[in-house]
Design brief:
This protein has 143 residues and is α/β, with parallel strands linked by helices. Helices cover 42% and strands 18% of the residues. The protein has one domain (2-141): Rossmann fold (3-Layer(aba) Sandwich). The chain is built from four helices and five strands, in the order E-E-H-E-H-E-H-E-H. A five-stranded mixed beta sheet has the order 1-3-2-4-5, with helices on both faces. Helix 3 links the parallel strand 4 and strand 5.
Length: 143
């Protein structure tokens, strides 16, 4: 599912893809879709210079849409730039091989579109702060 922040009227249309592993459990896919919706809503508050127009989710296996399908859908919608955010904690084969290969193939298939991959969730410096905050919240709720 692609979530539109607003109808793209600018020359350059930017998109964000949140890519997750995928699960046979439908609730897992729904959680990723809900996260994308929240991100889309927050993105609506960004300045026009820093705004991305579309937020989509994708999976690598076990669920749909697959990353390649989401990329194709976004290109058909007129996207000029795609930023892929890997929703992974650790750098395994999906991060080191599968996602870069899919993005490289997309770049060759759609030469007029710019593709890039951000650091994965586990590589973000603030992730430890989020974990400690969550643990402290749990500890404090038990007192």
């Amino acid at each position: 599912m692609v979530t539109w922040n607003r109808a793209p009227r600018r020359k350059n249309v930017n998109a964000l893809i949140i890519v997750a592993h995928g699960s046979r459990n439908k609730k897992s896919a729904q959680q990723v879709a809900a996260l994308c919706q929240k991100i889309s809503e927050k993105a609506g508050n960004l300045s026009d210079q820093n705004k991305f127009d579309l937020v989509a989710h994708a999976f690598l296996q076990f669920a749909s849409p697959l990353l390649e399908e989401t990329i194709e859908d976004l290109v058909q919608r007129g996207v000029h730039r795609v930023i892929v955010f890997p929703l992974f904690i650790a750098a395994g084969s999906h991060l080191l091989k599968d996602i870069p290969e899919a993005v490289e193939t997309a770049g060759k298939t759609y030469p007029g579109v710019s593709f890039s991959i951000t650091r994965h969730l586990g590589a973000i410096e603030a992730i430890e702060d989020i974990i400690v905050h969550e643990v402290m919240t749990q500890l404090n709720s038990q007192e």
